[in-house]
Each structure stands twice: as C-alpha cells, then as structure tokens.
Amino acid sequence: KIRNYNSTDGLLGDEMNDGALLVDSQNNVWMGHIAGVSKYEPSSSKKAKIASPSTQLTQVSPYLKTINGKDSLNWQYYDSLSQWNYLPQGLILPYDKNGLSFQFVSSSHTIPEKVRYQWKLEPLDKFWASVTDKTSADYANLSAGEYTFHVRSMNHLNTWGEPTQYSFTIKPPVWKTWWFLTLMLTAASSIIFLAV
C-alpha cells in the first residue's frame, strides 16, 4: 500500500530538494527540504493503531431550515427529536417541502484537515458521491418515497469508517395516492354507468 506524506503529517515541507533523499542503515528515510531535514521511520508507522473513523450526523434540516428543540412550526412533520443531537425522528415531509440538508462530522481528529467524506441517498443515488472535505449535503425536489441517507468518513490513513444512516419519507400529493385514484376511478365509472 502506498501512502503519501506532506507537511500536515509532520514533514518540514511539501517540496523536496533534488537528490536530497537518503535511506540509512536502519531503513530510516531522510528527506531534504528548503526548510530543513525530515526523518521518516517506517518501523514506527507500523506501530500506530488508529481506529476507523465514525461519522455523526449533526443536523438534518427539512426544506433547508434549521430544526431545534424550540421549533414548534415543524413538529407536525416528525415524532420527536433525538436526545443526543436533536435530529428529527420519524420524519415525514409533504410533497411540497421536499428538500433536505444534512450536516455531519467525523470522529477522526488526528489530522482533521485530511478527513474526507462520501455520501449517497438511496434509492436516488446509485453510487457514493465523489470524495470531498465538504461536511454537508443538500437534496432538493425529491420525489415521493422512502429514502435513506448514508454518510461515511475517511481518516488521514485512507481508512473508511462504517456509514451512518438516516431514514425519512416524502409523502405524495393527495392526487397521487392510491385511495384518491380509486375514488376518482369509482366516480368516473359511476358517471359512465349513470349516463348509459
């Protein structure tokens, strides 16, 4: 496996001088930079055991508005707020409020600027989004249906953690529900029957 190192890993610089690379008798790698000399000890990097990162959702905002414990306007769309992070539980949105924003954070704090994320919204997204350092994802104009948002993070060692997920529902408009269509079909059949 190949790893890339730079100044965020502790090297004195990201640019090496030409010919300024030496492997000594203990297999240590010495690298000359404009700012000085860096030493890499391959044996010490094998000893470090860093856990896979976990990803937590910090906010789910229906139709791109913030939810908090005092938000009485939105209570009609969810059952409760989770005690830990105030995420809406049992979220069911009407067809005309069909946009969501997700915000998330990783538990990997070793080199936070190297943490990367991926997400997908099933069944809308077939594949994970491109790897990015962005900590939010927005979805607008979602069709009626049941969705599950998945997000995962990768630490500085390129190790992916298990995805976190959040499920919600977008209700169809009244005129697209099975009972409304059945009622219209029955009414149309009755009118045709009475006309004949």
How much helix, percentage-wise, in residues? 10-25%
Structural Rg: 26 Å
Kindly name the structural category: mainly beta
Strand order of the biggest β-sheet: 7-12-11-9
Count of helices?
2
Q: Name the average pLDDT.
A: 81
Please state roughly what percent of the residues sit in beta strands, choosing from under 5%, 5-15%, 15-25%, 25-35%, 35-45% or over 45%.
25-35%
Polypeptide structure, described:
There is one protein chain. The model has no long low-confidence stretch (mean pLDDT 81). This protein is 12% helix and 34% strand. The termini are far apart. It is mainly β and 196 residues long. It contains two helices and twelve strands, in the order βββαβββββββββα. The protein has helices at residues 42-47, 178-195; strands at 16-23, 29-33, 36-40, 55-62, 80-81, 88-89, 92-93, 100-106, 116-122, 136-139, 145-154, 164-170.
